[in-house]
Give the backbone structure.
Amino acid sequence: MAEEMNDRVDQIISIENHIHETQKKVPEASGQFSGVLCEIALAAKIVSREVRRAGLADILGVTGEVNVQGEAVKKLDVFAQTVFVEILKRGGRVHAIVSEESEEIIKIPGFMPHGHYLITIDPLDGSSNTDANIPVGTIFGIYRRTPGELAEDEDLFHRPGSEQVGAGYVIYGSSTVLVYATRLGGVHGFTLDPSLGEFILSHPHIRTPERGSILSVNEGYRPWWKENTREYIDFLKSEGENRPYLCRYVGSLVADFHRDLVYGGIFLYPENGKDPDQPHGKLRLLYEAAPLAFVAEEAGGKASTGDTRILDIVPDDIHQRVPLIIGSRLDVEDYEAYYRGER
Ligand code: AHM
Ligand code: MG
């Protein structure tokens, strides 16, 4: 029995161990990037604790403020924003942060130590779901500013998602899971053991199936979709080889994305004509689409607007919205073929 226990203990890999082991694959690494990931993991634990006891702590409900997207801000959004931003600011490894909750780029004050990293973050995505106990999440992307780079502050984030050096998300669901991806290290998931207060490796080397069987889309926008999008969705719902697809839509991006990543499938938030202010759909490039596109590609999947690879888009605006079609490679390629009118 004792031997069995020891065997299992040998297999426990904490996120900190994993990050430091991954760092060894990059001999020139200074440890700054590993430090940023560890800070994100720490912030995620704090947010997870608060999300878990949200109902009890009377923290739910709107603050009365409106964020830069014109949406009501939930108290948990504010809490998550503060935790992530303060921890990253104080670590001394970050130069600037773009967050869904801040209209402007968040710069590290001159009196604080600065690093080379640029962070994009949605501190608590899907937060309109918290009152119904539906999973919410954090999405993050990490870029490295070349030392000596002269980009003006407003140009700092005008870079394509392909320049990310790492990205990931945290899902506060039936358990809290943190998934991170790096170019050399692949994609790995860690489940928070609340009794240990540690993220433990639970999903090593995530690869998404080449083709899935799950369709995730909000069909309420069907009347406003392009005809090609309607035809593609009808195709997936019709009978045929590997069809009809199962329809699954939580309405919380990390939950929908994580399920499709693990099981295989396609998530779509295409452009729709319903809201003239949002001709490209609802999702934001820098802190929703690009980080998840990085994770998807590193896991063998794909992410596209229909005609453009998400990771190739250089934003004009830090809060820019893009259509997002993401998931199993062959499914996204089928959508692109419909989009071009080839099917
Ligand atoms: P948020 O950033 O305001 O939380 O909105 C983003 C969320 C995503 O989690 C989800 O994929 C999407 O909104 C759902 O939108 P809709 O209700 O239009 O389907
Ligand atoms: Mg969001």
